[in-house]
Write a structure and sequence with these properties.
pyruvate; Rossmann fold; Glyoxylate/hydroxypyruvate reductase A; alpha/beta; binds oxalic acid
């Protein structure tokens, strides 16, 4: 029985060591030609490998990241499970990133960065207090809930939106299209942590920004294709939005001459809100393999058919459609 690791060698070395200690019966390979195809039971990868049918005994494809939208349109052979990374290391990093960006926007860092570039010593007043700052998260799964937990400590007025009904202590919860609109009306800092799929591609659009109070700001750590860049730029220029932290763009890397780089109130980070940490991810994967071997479902199982989307929905349709 073999595990084929098709990601970078540095993390592979950590996985190899963890597997040799905790799963000695599973052999570990870092290249397809190191292992007989019929021995391969598990593959770890970021992009969907084109040749999954080479492995007649494959049982699961593990994605090394939290998001699996890159698998949209790819078909798993019958009986093969697709599993995304649900790992404490990723959850902790995303929660930290959201806390950092929300605090920065709350304390007007985006304005001060702009002032500094122009050598302006100028306070942004009055400084709104945290209890009066309404922070809302779109996507209240594991990552969203961890981010909300971090933000609670500062006393923000918190809301969360999800496709389905849910409840989180200390957070006003919304769902469905009407719920989203209701939440947006009372949001000063909007955080997007949604996965990319048919319902969320292009969701951060002019309609959505128009539903926010003037001067609101955005933290985007979902996926680049969820953001309508033209709508963002014009909302920033008219003052509808006051600033944005973007960890994801379309395309990635963002080309050096892209206009987003130059906007004075946009802060860009290169998709680093979370970087899968090999030590904890290896333990998470070992645990999932043990579950599979004992006949249980792994944690993080994804329905690949829910990922398919053709990207054809227009931006304006979203706020109604979700
Ligand atoms: C992601 C990741 O899915 O970095 O964005 O894990």
């Amino acid at each position: 029985m073999a595990f084929l690791f098709l990601c970078d060698a540095v993390r592979g070395a950590v996985f190899a060591e963890t597997f040799s200690k905790l799963l000695p019966d599973v052999s570990f390979a870092m290249a397809a030609d190191e292992v007989a195809p019929e021995d391969v039971r598990f593959i770890m990868t970021w992009n969907p490998p084109p040749d999954l049918h080479r492995y007649p005994n494959l049982r699961a494809v593990f994605c090394i990241g939290a998001g699996v939208d890159q698998f949209a349109g790819s078909v798993m052979p019958p009986g093969v499970k697709l599993v995304r990374m649900v790992d404490d290391g990723i959850t902790r990093m995303v929660a930290e990133y959201v806390a950092m960006a929300v605090l920065a926007l709350h304390r007007n860092l985006h304005h001060y960065i702009d002032h500094q570039r122009r050598h302006h010593w100028m306070a942004v007043t009055p400084q709104v207090q945290a209890a009066a700052r309404r922070v809302s998260i779109m996507g209240t799964g594991v990552l969203g809930q961890a981010a909300l937990d971090k933000l609670k400590v500062f006393g923000f007025d918190l809301s969360g939106w999800n496709r389905s009904q849910h409840s989180i202590e200390g957070v006003s919860c919304y769902n469905g299209a009407d719920g989203l609109r209701e939440m947006l009306y009372r949001t000063d800092i909007l955080v997007c942590l949604l996965p990319l799929n048919a319902g969320t591609a292009g969701i951060l659009n002019g309609d959505l920004f128009a539903a926010l109070p003037g001067g609101a700001s955005l933290v985007h750590a979902g996926r680049g294709r969820q953001l309508d860049v033209d709508a963002l730029m014009s909302s920033l220029d008219t003052g509808r939005l006051s600033g944005a932290f973007l960890d994801v763009t379309d395309p990635e890397p963002l080309p050096a001459d892209h206009r987003l780089w130059k906007h004075p109130r946009v802060v860009i980070t290169p998709h680093v809100a979370a970087i899968t940490q090999a030590d904890s991810a290896a333990l998470t994967t070992v645990n999932n393999i043990k579950r599979l071997i004992s006949g249980r479902d792994p944690i993080g199982i994804v329905d690949p058919s829910a990922l398919s989307w053709d990207g054809s929905r227009t931006a304006a349709e979203h706020i109604k459609a979700i």
